[in-house]
Amino acid sequence: MGAWAESVQVCVFDMRRGQQEGHELDKILFFSPLDCPLPTQLSVVGLSEGLITFTRIFSPEKPCQLMQAELHCHIFFNCEPDIWIVMVIEKSKEGEEEVRVAAIEGMLKEAHDLFVMFFGSIRGMLEKHPVGDLARSCLHAFFPDYLAEFMVGKKLRLPSIREGLTERGMVEPVNLDRDTFLHAQSLVGLLESWFGGGTVRHTMLLFHNYLVSSTLSAEDTARLFGYALLRLTPAAISLSNRRIKSASMSAISAAGQSKIRNLLNNGSAASSQGPSSGEEGLERVTKKHPRPLKPDGWWKEVDNFLATDAWESDSREAKALGPTIWLQHSNEQMRLCVFQYRTTTLIILVPTNSSVNGLDGLSLLRGHLLEKGAQKMQKLEERLAKEWKGINASHIAGYRYLCCDRTGKTAKASPPSKVATLSKESLAVLNLVRADIDLEKGRLERQASHHDADLEVCVRTKQNAWLVVRARGGQELYTVQERAGDTLLLASDAVEKLSKRHFNGHFYSD
Amino acid sequence: MDNTTVHESHSDIEDLFDEEEGERPCYLSDEEHAESVTGAPAVSSSEMEADNVAKLSNLDISDNTQEESQVHEGGSSHEISETTPGHQGEEGGRSNDPKGLELGDGDGSAIATSSTTDVGPESTDSGVLVTDVVDGDTLSEDGIQESPGSPSSSREGTSGYLAGSGSSAASVCSASGVDESADRILNQESTRPTRRSWVPGKRHPDEDDTSLAWRKHKKHFFILSNAGKPIYSRYGDEHKLAGFSATLQAIMSFVENSGDTIRFVKAGDHQIVFLVKGPLYLVAISATEEPDEVIRCQLELLHAQLILILTKGVEKCFVKNSKFDMRPLLGGTDMVFSHLIHGFSWNPATFLRAYTCLPLPYAIRQAAGAALQDMPNTGPLFSLLMCGSKVISLMSPRKSSISPNDILLLSNYVASSDSFRTTESFFPVCLPGYNPTAFLYAYVQYLDSDTCLFLLTADPDGFFQLKECRGRIGTILRQTNVLAEVANAVRRGGLRVEHLLETKASHPVLDPKTSSIFGSDGDHELHGSAGVPREGTIGIGGPAGLWHFIYRSSFLDQYVASEFSSPLHTTSAQKRLYRAYQKLYTSMHGAGAAGPHKMQYRRDERHVLLSWRTSDFELYAAFDPLADKSSAVAVCNRVCQWLRDLESEIFLLGATPFSWCN
């Protein structure tokens, strides 16, 4: 079960471009599917722009976010000033109620966050290259790979009610005892001290899909963590079934290639040039820029370092630097180095200009890490593996839950295998309640006196399950109890106990 | 109606509108008024009306209606001949005169009407006035045609849809008998200049979409045709909003052209809800935190209100001419829509799909029911006795059913104009839930300042029969003391949460003395004198911090709501709670996989809300935000028990069950 869209279109467009009649195509920076006919693309952008302009009459600060029609749904994300990402979903007959708009907004936000992490802002690119070719080619190097993550066969699987107890853009920390935590700290301290300090600017340590430690800001941690889950964790690497291969174009259909070329030609009308010349265009796009989400783009070498061919680029400089990311917090570009020992992944960020005695800082660091850090890493991994209680470690009997901390961007939740035991009806109610709380939070965010939601909602479903949600001080706890007894008080007390035992009593009530 | 009455009615209606959304009625300056009355646009609009009437004259509504209308032709004239006994021979002759009917037909009629009113509001020529009357009645023969007679009044900005409901106003006055009637018409005519300075129903008529103030209104409603012609806007002048209407139409048509239908758009705190009803587009733009489902229901009601005035037959006009201008047909009915829209902020009947009753001793309600029941077989299809928006009794001798929404729309139609208070009225009306394609005929008269009697028949000639029925019902109601008890009940007010506390404190719940809201021996001790709660109960709410509740009986399709008491004494607090109830009701009635909920508890910084739904009833209760959960649950149980004890007084038992047509 899941929300399967019959078809999905994604469009990135800039409202400042293509103002003159006949130049509308210049607005479009990216459109998926790539083989979508141009009149359809223009129609999507035209309607979207019309709705944005219209809603600005009444809501200038926060224009159109969502348009629901009988058969389609347009979800708008204003990622940068006047730059919009719009997802058009054709509803499947039974899937309508399963889609939660905020979850899809979260998906679009994640896409943009990752894009900015690798390429910088779209507006920045457009300012540097007003013709728009740079922004278009980077978006084309990134978006199809991102969307491919959600594709199963030819259909795109949207966040559905099954993911009601997950939250995109959050980090799930692992529970550590004090000694293990000190071991992790000691490793981080050691790395940062090398070469007189400054070479290792930041580190992030993961165990399986959980965060052990990070020296980055909460936002940057969440972004890099999101990327690690997609490409760097042992689970992601094990899915990569390749070692060293030439770049694959499989993610992009041949039929759409001529359209890309047309877009690259500054929005001129569709030409009749055949697919062979279009392929050249695509080659140009993908060769020119890194594809950080390239499928199978990362693999593990024998020395336990992860290697990638996703950053192959026409630019010598970019090629020499290898994988890099931009930190939002400090607006610095960092080189990425990943070391993975069994289930533990160490991500090291090194400044792009780092050099030690005129030698490349990163190369020296790799040698140093193998020599002096590998053993420490090995010990830490052993401790973590010993301490870890398995994939169901976060399970609390009798509850299915999700606890999010919006400030720290961390989340703790029941394991997916346990959430899967919930009835469809409970999940559907959860979806509705979450949508309601999303609205409430959105409203509070827009208020001048911004404050966090403080509320409690308890719902008894028609099948007698209890759904209890409590929000306080930027934290939210969602729980589903399918055997909580008949009364509000019993269900509520059960959540009170959960709050006391596992969340330091943060969600106390009454 | 003298000037004093007019002024009184101003203040009455003014009170209806809350200040929060700037719903103050507007007053036109004399200059503006002069323009609207004597300016060139009036002439052109009369031409337009004439054109529409000509087009409408070929309109088929339904077989039924047509038949009725044929009969009605004679009926209306008969009505007039009967209504003014003093001039019976003369006026009856006039209206039966084929020339008189011709006057009331087609182009000539409309132009004659408008010229009558435009040129001579001060005219005292009874002949002209009778022509006006005949015109109204004749037009009403064909349901839809009855309205074109009205635009003259709407353009004047006079008594609103008073004349728009057409014949009603005209026949009303003439039907009230004796020579006075003619005088009254004359008086009405002579007072028109005064009334013209007030534009009923329309708020901020000078605004349009370019003005910031217009954009800042919290809730807009628009009705437009699928060709983009504005039909109604809650705020601003429809003519000035033509461009805005065209934009709305463009958006809707753009989506429609792709084989889809736009439902709603969300933008920050605003949401835009669209409803397509055949050739009509209804749009709400709101920043009121109401769920889109609620706003959609409101648009459905707005559409149903329009159908109540015109029947679905109006859609055929658009089939014939897509650029058809419907505004003249609705001339002057702004007040009906604005009154309904105002009800969306305070009247739970607008979202509960249920009606509420005036609390009355069981015997009194029985007596009222008996009075309504005592009808000949050929009598009314429905008899309804109401007090404001509350039902006293409801009878359907022929076991037909009337839906709560029809009751809401009908009472809204009547309540939105003071003109109904002063005279008896007989007018065509369509009950969308009963039959959206045909007119019924409603006889409406206020029996006293509070109590209004509605008698509905399918017979366009039924005026005199219903008038007779009214006479009989009125006599019985007086004899059985029903009207006096209704007045008492109004004075006393509804249930108060404080009384639950007293009930608990001083008596066991089942004590027969307190199991009636009227106390023992008919005293009104519990309520204090004149409906004012006793000292000490003000401001404390009910037990366990209970502030308010709504109880809806699923079997009866009726609800009862407690009176607002402190701390819900401000309009904004009441409106906030009302909207929270709307939201709660919507979530409790979820469809799809989630289905309806059985119970819900919701606490935020404003209040604690508890809702409980069984197969028999739904309870929605509001508490202080600090209320203890277990006490709140206990109090909800007590409320239910209390209401069950009071059932025979607060509900109309044994009414015909409703069928859901919409």
TrEMBL record, chain A:
Residues 265-290 are annotated as: Disordered. It holds the Pfam family Intu_longin_1. InterPro entries: Ccz1, CCZ1/INTU/HSP4_longin_1. Residues 10-120 form the CCZ1/INTU/HSP4 first Longin domain. Residues 267-279 have a biased composition (Low complexity). One of its GO terms (cellular component) is Mon1-Ccz1 complex. One of its GO terms (biological process) is vesicle-mediated transport. Belongs to the CCZ1 family. PANTHER family: VACUOLAR FUSION PROTEIN CCZ1 HOMOLOG-RELATED (PTHR13056:SF0). This is CCZ1/INTU/HSP4 first Longin domain-containing protein. It comes from Ceratodon purpureus (Fire moss). The lineage of its organism: Eukaryota, Viridiplantae, Streptophyta, Embryophyta, Bryophyta.
UniProtKB/TrEMBL annotation, chain B:
It holds the Pfam family Fuz_longin_3. InterPro entries: FUZ/MON1/HPS1_longin_1 (IPR043972), FUZ/MON1/HPS1_longin_2 (IPR043971), FUZ/MON1/HPS1_longin_3 (IPR043970), Mon1 (IPR004353). Residues 1-210 are annotated as: Disordered. GO terms for biological process: protein targeting to vacuole; vesicle-mediated transport. Residues 123-133, 146-177 have a biased composition (Low complexity). Residues 134-144 have a biased composition (Acidic residues). Residues 381-473 form the FUZ/MON1/HPS1 second Longin domain. Residues 219-340 form the FUZ/MON1/HPS1 first Longin domain. It comes from the Eukaryota. Residues 59-68 have a biased composition (Polar residues). Residues 1-13, 69-81, 88-102 have a biased composition (Basic and acidic residues). Residues 545-645 form the FUZ/MON1/HPS1 third Longin domain. Plays an important role in membrane trafficking through the secretory apparatus. Belongs to the MON1/SAND family. This is Vacuolar fusion protein MON1 homolog. It comes from Ceratodon purpureus.
